Automatic annotation (TrEMBL), chain A:
This is Autoinducer 2 import system permease protein LsrC. It comes from Jiangella aurantiaca. GO terms for molecular function: transmembrane transporter activity. Its main location: membrane. Part of the ABC transporter complex LsrABCD involved in autoinducer 2 (AI-2) import. Probably responsible for the translocation of the substrate across the membrane.
From TrEMBL, chain B:
Residues 30-52 are annotated as: Disordered. It is found in: Cell envelope. NCBIfam families: RhaS. It comes from Jiangella aurantiaca. This is Rhamnose ABC transporter substrate-binding protein. It comes from the Bacteria. The gene is rhaS.
Length: 346, 363
């Protein structure tokens, strides 16, 4: 039972004594915050425009879509799975939605978002079904659907491209407009992060995801409906990728068959950097969102620092390794400290 | 993923060029019809070419082999070629790989050769890897005309170039200089760092800046690479504007780059402050020209390119030209063309698009 009911990150009250230390140490995203602050501070020191309103908005806008996908990916990774098809799902949703808007220019934005969610959920259901009923490893199954879904986009789109002038004005404005200075896109992402965070930490179905990832066998023996939970996870991940597609169309205003190509690796990187264990059972959507934000800040900061383009990829890779290393270090400190305290308590 | 990624990143703008055909499939069909009728109306063209040394044969089987199918740029080229082949009463086929790997065109060339195609119109993914296949095809009697992207000159009969590289560079810097009033800092947002065409154009721009007194006060402060990805191009544009507070304008000689940069400027506080020009398609840029984000940009017409390639191929197959320097032929309503050195036929200078004429174009 202890395997199933892992202590949650949000329950530091059980450890009296040094609650503050516990909270800090157990917040696995601490490494991320440090890296984030260091990155922003260093860049701002060189070029103060980096912390201008426009720049911060750009960064948040850039992170919005990755955050959305990272949330879905987190849920799947928590169950010890992975979804490599998110980039293709995003592309499919972006193209179909943009095509729909081009034919029906009067469509309200929320309807477009629902359409994207539905397309994504459909794709997610396929993933979940193949993995659960076909007993295919998630890595292989979603690698397959990565190509299948991309193939469908090519089939639907052919060589055509939907341009900004083909999409309704209101939809494009949604991609750039803001309320109280905050872009709509980032608001959508933050709402999703909070909802997913609450779902994972407070609801039974959410906690079951952790249980499944920690020990699938134990979880099944404990009576957790593994199949239903797995399907939920993949449908959720697909739906969020679908929503991401709608935001992609609104933000870039240009959609062709290759939209979102290669995005899955960025998303997996964000999730891993965000402290979600790739073998499941541990991590939070807040960490994943921070991971996505950090990666976006890095890729925005390097051009501002006028870093030679040829070095950028290598630097991003090194920073990813560094962030993971830092996070791992903090993680080790945490478990060591927890062990000490456990022995004290015992 | 890797397939489509390769497709995007390959070292040529065409891989990036996007044309909205979705909206205009019907219109394009109509255009094809129209041009057929036009040419039918002026149906004395074959007689005119007879003067230039011979008549086009009818019934030629002409196949277009693009870098990859599913690319709007080549779809547009194919439209043009198909119209020309229809005019010449030949058989037309459009076939090709779905990725732009160097070797993926080989099997298509072999197949076309075995089918005894009279003409292959090829946009090559690799200058050398295709040569042995092309040699075999030519030995079997197939004429090979490359367009858009060339192979080694010894492996083909003629090359139809979209435009003179130096002319593209000069047009770009000229438009930029006009828009910033002849002085100030500019930057370039290119495709990938190893994109051959972009680099050649950038070299021309740099040379013009160094040597042309008209641009004495224009300074190129940075060249960045958006890799023909929307997100990366966004970020590089942001980076340029933040790193260079004095920047007056951006030249983006790639269709993905210019669209992404325009979309970014449109939604930012820099709109109207920064001049943006480069190579883009009218459909893609219409929105940004109408709302004032972009004043003027340029591109050649891929449909005309495909049309010229088809006429050139037919001319080679009919023995009107051999690909030697100085040969002339008439390409339907496009007019008369002369083969240059190395068998290169140049379509013409790029067309400039601005608020006054953008609605006349639909590709």
């Amino acid at each position: 039972m202890t395997l199933v009911a892992r202590p949650t990150d949000s329950a530091p009250t059980t450890r009296t004594g040094s609650t503050l230390l516990d909270a800090v140490l157990r917040f696995r995203a601490l490494g991320l915050l440090i890296a984030l602050v260091a990155m922003v501070a260093a860049t701002a020191a060189v070029n103060s425009r980096f912390v201008s309103q426009q720049s911060i908005r750009d960064i948040l806008l850039g992170a919005a879509i990755t955050i959305l996908l990272a949330v879905g990916m987190t849920v799947v990774v928590l169950t010890r799975g992975i979804d490599l098809s998110v980039g293709s799902v995003l592309g499919l949703s972006a193209y179909v939605t943009a095509d729909f808007l081009q034919v029906n220019p009067g469509t309200p934005v929320p309807v477009a978002m629902l359409l994207g969610l539905a397309i994504g959920a459909g794709c997610g259901l396929v993933n979940g079904a193949v993995i659960h009923f076909g007993k295919v490893p998630a890595l292989v199954a979603t690698l397959g659907t990565l190509y299948v879904f991309r193939g469908i986009v090519y089939f639907v789109a052919g060589g055509s491209r939907i341009n900004a002038s083909d999409m309704p004005r209101g939809f494009l404005d949604f991609g750039t407009d803001r309320v109280l200075g905050i872009p709509y896109l980032i608001i959508v992402s933050l709402v999703v992060v909070v909802l997913a965070g609450v779902f994972l930490s407070r609801y039974r179905a959410g906690r079951d995801m952790y249980a499944l990832g920690s020990s699938p066998e134990a979880a099944k023996l404990a009576g957790i409906p593994a199949g239903r939970r797995l399907l939920t996870a993949y449908v959720l991940c697909g739906a969020l990728a679908g929503l991401g597609g709608v935001l992609h169309a609104a933000r870039f205003g240009t959609v062709d068959a290759s939209a979102g190509s290669g995005m899955e690796l960025n998303v997996v990187a964000a999730v891993v950097v965000g402290g979600v264990a790739i073998f499941g059972g541990s991590g939070t959507v807040f960490g994943a969102a921070l991971g996505a934000l950090l990666l976006t800040v890095i890729s925005n900061a390097l051009p501002v620092l006028s870093v030679d383009q040829f070095w950028q990829q290598a630097i991003v890779g090194a920073l990813i390794l560094g962030a993971i290393g830092l996070d791992r270090f903090v993680g080790l400190r945490v478990s060591a400290s927890l062990r000490r305290k456990d022995s004290h308590v015992d | 993923m890797s397939a489509s990624r390769t497709r995007r990143v390959r070292a040529f703008t065409s891989a990036a060029l996007g044309l909205s055909l979705a909206l205009t499939v019907a219109a394009c069909g109509g255009t094809t019809q129209d041009s057929n009728e036009d040419e039918g109306g002026g149906g004395d063209e074959p007689a005119a070419t007879a003067d230039a040394g011979g008549e086009f044969e009818t019934g030629l089987s002409i196949a277009m082999l693009p870098k990859s199918v599913n690319n709007p740029y080549f779809d547009a080229s194919s439209e043009g070629a198909e119209a020309a082949v229809g005019e010449l009463e030949g058989e037309y086929e459009y076939t090709g790989p779905s990725d732009t790997a160097a070797s993926s065109q080989v099997s298509y060339i072999n197949t076309l050769s075995q089918q005894a195609a009279d003409v292959i119109l090829l946009s090559a993914n690799d200058p050398n890897a295709l040569c042995s296949s092309l040699e075999q095809a030519r030995a079997a009697g197939t004429s090979v005309v490359t367009f858009d992207s060339d192979v080694d000159p010894s492996c083909r009969d003629a090359f139809v170039s979209q435009v003179d590289g130096a002319e593209v560079g000069r047009t770009l810097i000229e438009m930029m200089s006009e828009q910033i009033g002849g002085e100030g800092q500019i930057a370039i947002l290119s495709a990938t760092a190893n994109a051959t065409n972009q680099n050649a154009w950038i070299a021309v721009i740099e040379e013009e800046l160094a040597n042309n007194p008209d641009y004495a006060n224009v300074e190129l402060v940075a060249t960045v690479y958006g890799d023909d990805e929307d997100e990366k191009s966004f970020q590089e544009t942001q980076g340029l504007l933040q790193a260079n507070p004095e920047l007056k304008g951006i030249i983006s000689p790639t269709t993905v780059g210019i669209a992404a940069a325009a979309r970014y400027l449109q939604g930012s506080e820099y709109k109207g402050q920064i001049a943006l020009t480069g190579l883009g398609t009218p459909n893609q840029m219409r929105e940004f020209v109408k709302d004032g984000t972009v004043t003027e940009f340029a591109l050649w017409d891929p449909t005309a390119l495909g049309e010229l390639a088809a006429y050139a191929g037919a001319a080679v197959a009919s023995g009107i030209i051999t690909g030697a320097e100085g040969d002339t032929f008439t390409a339907g309503e496009l007019g008369e063309y002369t083969v240059g050195a190395d068998g290169v036929i140049i379509l013409g200078p790029p067309t400039r698009f601005n608020a006054d004429n953008i609605d006349d174009f639909d590709f």
